[in-house]
Specification:
With about 450 residues, this protein is α/β, with parallel strands linked by helices. It has two domains: about 180 residues, NAD(P)-binding Rossmann-like Domain (Rossmann fold); about 230 residues, 2-Layer Sandwich (Dihydrodipicolinate Reductase, domain 2). The chain contains 17 helices and 17 strands. The chain has a nine-stranded mixed beta sheet with strand order 15-14-13-7-12-11-8-16-17. Strands 3-2-1-4-5-6 form a six-stranded parallel beta sheet, with helices on both faces. The two termini are about 25 Å apart. The N terminus is likely disordered.
Length: about 450
């Protein structure tokens, strides 16, 4: 049996089993625990391959292990791979280890892949995983560039029968973020005039010395599509976030979370939606830039001090800023609220303006008709039942457009216009040239 047919037959079996038992399909707000969802029969648990098992990747792997069998772990740092293999709540000493992710994708017995690599690897692996017939969980930020938004959208449109989830777990926070989204969408704050997205600034640091590459690390493959650089310890693993070569600093680190919630609440995360003008003139970087690029390669280079103003065609403005508290402030004609991972505040919250307007049905609507549950629960439900995940790639790339436009405007320190329908920067050739990046030979992204 071919790989795609085999995966499809397994999905059909799981769906038919669920229909026969009836309980999960007919109970609309069943609070699935990991073990309950993972099915009573161990043979119904999908096989999972985890690509990227550093600190975040191992955390995600432990979550996936509630729903399936982790049979393979992959990392270009052998230390990470062996640690995950031998962890009792990940590989249990039995998972196969790989350095090359393609060996995971080649395995017909693996149905689900979790991609938790540095940002500049996300889309290349995700597109190839979809082409290999896998269901895909990938950590945020989903993309590195505006061009990658289009590449992953096309791949997901082609493979609509495969579940795809982005790890923006704030979309599964009923008490705070979902409540804020519901309140804005219901018009309880009146007409929204301004949104402040506080994401803090990137750390500063350097100069960092050139160092010997650890013997367990494949530095060549770690760099992937990015320009080849001498190894510096602060360029690798968690610290990659503060280098534009591999990420977008806080624009994509926290922006992928908070901008995502803001765009969702404003109902601006659909096709051809987005800002029409972006102003990055009030932004600073910790090193000197020329033509939008850092002039030194031994310091963190992402922006540490910024306020990027986005204007929408309906008059709403959004400030993506390093100033103030981390979180999102929605300001409407009737009231304002603030929300972050620790709290949701404001008079509308204190006075329970949504007392009769935030039901299970409202939450299910935000969950695209599925019941409210944990983030990964929703992913595995969509594997079984079909449909879009609560953190689907199509809406997420609309938020990522705002993140990437913020980064480009900040790097150039100026204002430009954006056509959200055509997805093009207008009237600024230099800014438009930054919608994509040149990739190193051998690391191109598959176009589908």
């Amino acid at each position: 049996m071919g790989k795609h047919n085999k995966n499809r037959s397994r999905r059909n079996f799981i769906r038919s089993t669920a229909a026969a038992t009836g309980a999960l399909a007919t109970t609309p707000y069943f609070d699935w625990s990991g073990k309950a969802f993972a099915n009573q029969d161990k043979n119904d648990r999908p096989n999972i391959g985890c690509i990227g098992v550093g600190s975040m990747g191992s955390g995600d792997a432990r979550g996936h292990a509630n729903f399936g069998n982790i049979v393979a772990v992959c990392d270009v740092d052998e230390r990470h791979a062996l640690r995950a293999k031998n962890a009792g709540n990940i590989g249990g000493g039995k998972a196969d280890t790989y350095e090359d992710y393609r060996k995971v994708l080649d395995r017909n017995d693996i149905e689900v892949v979790s991609i938790v690599t540095p940002d500049h690897w996300h889309i290349k692996i995700a597109v190839e995983a979809l082409e290999a017939g896998k269901h895909v969980f990938v950590q945020k930020p989903l993309t590195l560039t505006l061009e990658e938004n289009q590449l992953i959208r096309r791949a997901c449109e082609k493979h609509k029968d495969q579940a795809f989830m982005v790890g923006t777990q704030q979309r599964s926070d009923r008490g705070k973020f979902l409540r804020a989204v519901n309140m804005v969408q219901k018009g309880l704050l009146g007409k929204i005039k301004h949104v402040t997205v506080g994401i803090n600034g990137s750390p500063t640091g350097g100069p960092f010395p050139i160092a010997e590459v650890p013997k367990e690390l494949n530095w060549e493959m770690w760099q992937g599509q990015a320009p080849a650089k001498e190894y510096r310890q602060k360029r690798c693993h968690y610290e990659f976030r503060w280098w534009y070569e591999y990420s977008g600093g806080k624009f994509t680190d926290w922006g992928a979370h908070h901008v995502d919630i803001a765009m969702w609440a404003l109902n601006k995360n659909g096709s051809k939606q987005g800002p029409v003008e972006i102003d990055g003139s009030n932004c600073q970087h910790p090193v000197e830039f020329k033509d939008g690029n850092p002039t030194v390669d031994d310091h963190y280079n992402t922006s540490h001090n910024f306020s990027v103003i986005h204007k929408f065609d309906d008059g709403i403005t959004m400030d993506v800023t390093s100033h103030g508290d981390n979180g999102i402030t929605f300001e409407g004609t009737k009231g304002r609220i603030f929300v972050n991972r620790g709290k949701i505040t404001g008079t509308p919250i204190q006075e329970n303006w949504d007392k009769d307007a935030y039901s299970n049905e409202d939450v299910s609507g935000l969950y695209k008709g599925k019941p409210y549950e944990g983030h990964k629960n929703n992913f595995y439900r969509c594997i079984r039942d079909g449909g879009l995940t609560v953190s689907d790639p199509f809406s997420h790339v609309q938020a990522m457009s705002v993140c990437h436009l913020s980064s480009i405007a900040a790097r150039l320190g100026r204002q430009f216009k954006w056509d959200p329908a055509e997805e093009k920067i207008l009237g600024d050739e230099q800014a438009a040239s930054m919608q994509a990046r040149q990739r190193r030979e051998g690391y191109d992204i598959l176009k589908v």
